[in-house]
Structures are given as C-alpha cells and as structure tokens.
Amino acid sequence: MLLPPGRLLARVGVTPTMVTLVGAFGVVAASLVFYPRGELFIGSVAVTAFVLLDMLDGAVARAADRTTRWGAFLDSTLDRLSDAAILSSLVLWFFGGGDAPLLGYVTLFCLVSGFGISYIKARAEGLGANCDVGFAERTERLVILLVAVGLGGLGVPYVLSAGLWILAALSGITVVQRLIETRNRLTRPRRPAGDTGTV
C-alpha cells in the first residue's frame, strides 16, 4: 500500500530523510501545540497525519534504492522523540487544565515503559539476541493512544481513561515479555562449533 506514494515522492526528488524529518517534527509540533491546551481531537488528527507521513520513509527509500543503516538509525531515534512528545504533552494537560493527575501518572508510566520496550529490543539486538516479542509494539501503542485521545477529545465518556489504562497494562506486560525473552536467548547454552545437534 505504501509503495505507490513512495515511488511518487521519490520521482519528484523527495528523499527518505526529508520524509523522516518532516514526519517526526510534525508529530512533535502538533503534540506540543494542541495537547497541552486540551485540544485533544484536532491534536490527534494532526499527529496521526504526520505519523502516517513518517511511515512513508521506508517506501521512499526502497523506491529510490537508498536504504541505509544511517536512515534506519535516524528513523528509530526520531520515533522515540515523537513518542515522548505525544505522551509528555498529554502529561502537561492532565496535570494542568485537564485536572486529572491520576491519568497524568498513568501517562507517565506509558512514557517510561514505552522507552523501556524500545531500549530492551535495541540492547538485546546489540548483544546478538532477537527480541521481536510483546503485545505492544510501537504501532499498537500509537493506535490505542491516538484513538483513545481523539475520541476522548470528542467527549466520548470513559474512552480516554480506559485507553490509557489498557496501554499502561500492555506496555508493562511487554516490558516483562521482552526481559524474559532476552534472558532466555542470552543464557541459552551455545553448541560447540560443528555440533549440529543430531544423533
């Protein structure tokens, strides 16, 4: 689905780095402008638009045959900053005009656990262990968060608090899942060279 618009952007001279930067800075700006003022619905619409744009960087890279390790690193780093901007902006609202400190603490937990999920995977892969497990990958976390915040901004009762509590629970479970998976992979006995494990 993303390849046709990716090819179009590549043909007009747009680079993957341009897409990554515009998408990430758009998410950060939209979050910081709208969420602390309580404009949750329009903020979620704007953030979603830039998140979808950011998803095109890989398609543009493939269309232009410009996939690089630097591009993957930059995209991953800016994703963390984008997530932090969304959640910290909501924290400002909950502890400010939103007058919902409990949801502020839940959102803080989502922020910290989200960073934990990403760090565990990156550190595990740096040690040679694959760690693609867990209920709450970044895409799932963003869908739950943006839908809950957007509907909450429209006045749908209970959906915002329910979404945040669900996100917090799934994020906490995912941290534990990744810790266990990484421990299992890193402590698994290695077979001697040439040992195929067959009898």
UniProtKB/TrEMBL annotation:
Statement: the UniProt record of this protein carries the keyword Transcription: no
GO MF annotation list: magnesium ion binding; phosphotransferase activity, for other substituted phosphate groups
Transmembrane segments: 12-34, 40-60, 102-120, 141-158
Residue sites binding Mg(2+) 1 per the record: D54, D57, D75
Catalytic-site annotation from UniProt: D79
First-listed, main subcellular location of the protein, grouped into a coarse class: membrane
Keyword list, A-Z: Cell membrane, Lipid biosynthesis, Lipid metabolism, Magnesium, Membrane, Metal-binding, Phospholipid biosynthesis, Phospholipid metabolism, Transferase, Transmembrane, Transmembrane helix
EC number: 2.7.8.-
Pfam family, one: CDP-OH_P_transf
One GO cellular component term noted in the UniProt record for this chain: plasma membrane
Binding site for a CDP-1,2-diacyl-sn-glycerol: G58, R62, T68
Cofactor(s) required, per the database record: Mg(2+)
Subunit structure and binding partners: Homodimer.
Function: Catalyzes the conjugation of the 1'-hydroxyl group of D-myo-inositol-3-phosphate (also named L-myo-inositol-1-phosphate) with a lipid tail of cytidine diphosphate diacylglycerol (CDP-DAG), forming phosphatidylinositol phosphate (PIP) and CMP. PIP is a precursor of phosphatidylinositol (PI) which is an essential lipid required for cell wall formation.
Protein name stated in the entry: Phosphatidylinositol phosphate synthase
